[in-house]
Structure formats: C-alpha cells, structure tokens
Design brief:
By secondary structure, the chain is an alpha/beta fold. The protein has 9 helices and 11 strands. It has helices spanning 33-46, 63-66, 112-124, 144-152, 169-185, 215-223, 235-243, 247-250, 255-272; strands spanning 18-26, 51-55, 76-77, 80-81, 84-85, 92-96, 131-137, 160-165, 189-200, 207-208, 227-233.
C-alpha cells in the first residue's frame, strides 16, 4: 500500500503552472459526472489544450478505466508524484487513487482524516507541470472530500465548478443543494450540464425524450446560472466509455460529440474572459 506523507512535507508549488482549476460536482451519484469529466478533458485535448484530471472520488475511481489506463506504475520525481499520461505528447495527465491500490477490487474503507490527508497530497504533491485546465472529478454530494479539496486549494486559484445533473426533478433537487454548497464556500458556478438528456437511437440517430428533458436548463434559469448545454444518452458514447476508447476520435461527426465540444468551448471562453 502507498504511504500518505505528513502534510508538512508536501510541496506547494506544483500547481504554479496550472492556468485554470475547475471542479466537477454533482448532487447525487449516477448522473454521469465522471463521464462528463472524461469527455470534456478529451474535447479540450482535441482543441489543442494541455489538460489534467485529478480524480478525488476515492471510493469509486472510475476515470482510469474510462481512459483505458490500466494500472501503470506511479513514479516520483523531486517535486512529488509524476501524473500518468494518456498519450505520448503528454497532453492529458491523470492522477487517481486507482493507480495506487495493490488490488483494483480493494475497497477504500477510510475515515475522514485519512481521506483528507490523501487529497491534500493529491492537490499539492503531483507534479502537473504546465496545464491549461485541471479538472477535479469529485465524489457525489457535499462531504469531507469536497471540503478537503477546497481547503488545500486555498493557496491556488479555483476558477469555479461545473455542476452535472440529469433532467429528472429528483436529480435537479440534489443539485440545488450543491449550488448552496458552492455559495457557502465561495465557489463560482461556471455552469450546469444536463446529462442523459434524451436517448439517441443507435439505428437512426434520432433523439427521443425517454426520461425527460430540460430539467437542467430550467434549474439554470431558476438559479441564475449559466446553462452550458445538454448531452444525450448515446449508446456509442456508453460503449466508448466502457471500452476506454476516445469517443471524439471515433465519432467526430456525431451530434453527441458536437454537444460535448460546444460545452467545452463555452467553458474555455468563460475561463479566458474571466
């Protein structure tokens, strides 16, 4: 098992070359937050940006699988841990507890202080180098992990948060609480993404409102937040995530990729004009 360092030993300068830090939040599990994080990172990468993903979902680290990274060794340098790169050009970097567990099926049964210590080490002791955007994929809810991320990012600028919801009222209701969390902690809301907004037929590509549609957009209007866009439930995207394939590379002409690309561009524009 890896060793968690004493907090006094942690390097504070590893985010110095990171231009923008964006949290990805959701009020509940199962809304596709990690999928949105992964696809936004890939879209930004294809737009020529250097991107990092910090996966602080300690109990459910799914992003390494979504990016087909397996279980590579995590190396150390003078500045700390070296992130795992998904490509030879080092345009997409990733750090996750999934790389540090001896057994991928091992449950992380930790109390708050140990989680907080590891998140502190993740935030400060990963040698990201130069990045345009660092996306922080968080667990659902408003728990110790979220407070630990914000506490450890105090010395560095956090540009804001993207909130992910599905259209149903039970999901948007939970996201309202996430909005309250952002306001209480002083985190700027960059916008809301409505995921699983309609279903794309794998045969004719028509999008049908199997569940519902528009809940995220309505929530954005009610709370005065920016609506970044909606992403449909697309079997091609689901298969790409399951198999760890780059959806943007495989289906660059799909309406789903167009929606993701539009969201990433809106996010970039918001960050650059801030």
């Amino acid at each position: 098992m890896f060793e968690i360092q004493n907090m006094e030993e942690i390097n504070d300068g590893n985010l110095a070359q990171v231009r923008h830090v964006v949290l990805v939040l959701s009020g509940k599990g199962g809304v596709g937050k990690s999928t949105i994080t992964t696809e936004l990172a890939l879209a930004l990468k294809h737009a020529g940006k250097k991107v990092g993903i910090l996966d602080v979902d300690l109990c459910g680290p799914s992003i390494p699988r979504m990016l087909s990274m397996g279980r590579p060794d995590v190396h150390q340098c003078d500045s700390g841990w070296v992130p795992v790169y998904t490509d030879a050009q080092k345009s997409l970097a990733l750090m996750s507890i999934g790389f540090l567990l001896e057994d991928p099926d091992e449950a992380v049964v930790w109390r708050g202080p140990k989680k907080t210590a590891l998140i502190g080490q993740f935030v400060s002791d990963v040698a990201w180098g130069e990045l345009d955007v660092l996306l922080v994929d968080t667990p659902p809810g408003t728990s110790d992990e979220h407070l630990a991320v914000l506490e450890n990012l105090k010395k560095h600028r956090v540009d804001g948060a993207i909130l992910v919801t599905t259209p149903q009222a039970v999901s948007t209701g939970d996201v309202r609480r996430e909005i309250t969390f952002c306001k209480k902690t002083g985190v700027r809301i960059l916008g809301i993404v409505e995921n699983m907004s309609g279903f794309v037929c794998p045969h004719c590509s028509e999008c049908s409102n199997v569940f519902s549609k528009g809940g995220g957009e309505e929530l954005a209007k009610m709370t005065g937040s920016m609506f970044l866009g909606s992403v449909p439930l697309d079997p091609l995207l689901s298969a790409s995530i399951e198999e760890g394939r780059d959806f943007a590379q495989s289906f660059p002409d799909s309406a789903t990729f167009s929606a993701i690309s539009s969201i990433s561009q809106t996010l970039l524009n918001s960050l650059q004009t801030d």
